[in-house]
Amino acid sequence: MKLSVGMRVANSLSLTPQLQQAIRLLQLSSLELEQEIQLQLDSNPLLEKIEEHSSVESLSEYEDKEIEKKDLTNELNANHLPDDLPVDTDWDDVYTHQPTSLGSIEYEEREDNRQGGLSLKDHMLDQVNLLNFSLVDKLIAHCIIDSLDEKGFLESSTEEITFSVQHLLDSMEYDEEVEESEVLVVLKHIQRLEPIGIASRTLAECLQVQLDALNKNVPFRSEAIKLLNFYELLIANDLPKLLKQTHLNIEQLKQAISLLKTLKPYPGEEFENKDFDYQIPDVVVTKKNEHWFVQLNPDVMPKLRVNSYYANMIRRADQSDDNQYLRSQMLEAKNFIKSIDERHKTLLKVATCIVEHQRAFFEIGAEGMKPLVLRDIAEEVELHESTVSRVTTNKYMLTPRGLFELKYFFSSHVGTTSGGEASSTAIRAKIKKLIAEENILKPLSDNAISNLLKEDGIEVARRTVAKYRESLHIPSSSERKVLI
């Protein structure tokens, strides 16, 4: 084999650092983007953020005033720089706005007035401190309260609580034995505190405590207590056996069940933390004059620019380390600003295309959802599917119908009898609507729902209906059936 050296010309794709940065910024959520921008602001002195509601005085003007005050040397004066600097006042150097912004968003801004409420355990401890408990009983009460879950039920058994209390007493060198009966006595006191039924071990016990706390003259109270004695039959909705075991008639059984429904099954539910992590929308959709408009949320659009003062310090012919550092930082700042702008342009383009495809959804709701896949959007906006996937990940759209992730508008399709296609999201909405309108005495089976959908021209098998129903967390027809 003969070895030789030669030259060959070929085309190949390469991911430049700028392209890698643009791809990485594209898939970031609004919160992650904010963190990335702050990181760049902290590390790059030539990148600055234009703060709203503040004077637009440039740093160079401020520095000129400081130079006059302190009589610094003229080495840093911009007037001594050559005329052929690589910077001027064009967009490349001063970035004061985002060109993808389509004006101010017309939606009401509300102040966050959420307040931290009292937790369930703190609420219970405040009541226990008012009781005339001994030191041991208070210790038992604290152990019981520590064992409460978010719903207000007791997670630990009385044996475990007894063991924990005894261990604490031994560690404090307190010479006293604790019996399980003492724990049960304290537990009964706590169960009658507010909210009634707290620290119950089962749902039946919780309802029983609440019934016991009711006035004896409450109608059908005794009948409801009888039903709790056959709690398993009540949960199984086995009404014929309930009537036989409780010796109640249909009317008494109906009124007793109605009384049980007025009780609180989860006494600690009102103390659950209601502060959810609210998502900030990236895109806002509004309707004006029968037309839908798509706009970027200005609150998540950073206003960045290159610092003019530091940029004016760059000398073209100077090869010093400081000058080279400023050059590299200015290049990074420009690339970062352009990547941010490209991200917003792509997001706006994809969101606008989605709104055009799903116009029926915005008009009539989920039943109007059209089948849509990433390839459809990618072909229309002339982007790769992977790019569209990055754009729609962790991005949210605020619409008159609520806040939705962009991924929500993509769904698989099911064939129709007319040869068309129907979105799986629309089918789920139709199933939910059919079940909501059904006769509770004769609920629709999966097969009946499938036949009703066929009448609307949607070919869906019974197994598919069952899968969609379960995804909506709707029980089966036998569990939805109400006999009285």
Count of DSSP-assigned helices = 21
Number of DSSP E strands: 8
- Top CATH class of the domain at 413-480: Mainly Alpha
Helix content percent band: 40-55%
Name the shape in a single word. Answer: extended
Instruction: Give average pLDDT, whole number.
Output: 78
Main β-sheet description:
4 strands, mixed
Secondary-structure-derived class: alpha+beta
- Proportion of residues in extended strands: 5-15%
CATH superfamily of the domain at 413-480: Homeodomain-like
Uncertain regions spanning at least 5 consecutive residues? 54-60, 65-115
Function: Sigma factors are initiation factors that promote the attachment of RNA polymerase to specific initiation sites and are then released.
GO cellular component, one term: DNA-directed RNA polymerase complex
Domain RNA polymerase sigma factor 54 core-binding: 116-310
Keywords: DNA-binding, DNA-directed RNA polymerase, Nucleotidyltransferase, Sigma factor, Transcription, Transcription regulation, Transferase
What does this molecule look like?
The structure is a single chain. This protein is of the alpha+beta class and 484 residues long. It has a domain at 413-480: Homeodomain-like (Arc Repressor Mutant, subunit A). 47% of the residues lie in helices and 7% in strands. A four-stranded mixed sheet has the order 3-2-5-6. Strand 5 and strand 6 form a beta hairpin. The longest helix has 37 residues, at 321-357. The chain is extended and about 95 Å long. Mean pLDDT is 78; it is low at 54-60 and 65-115. It comes from Acinetobacter equi.
Outline of the structure:
The protein has 484 residues and is α+β, with helices and mostly antiparallel strands.
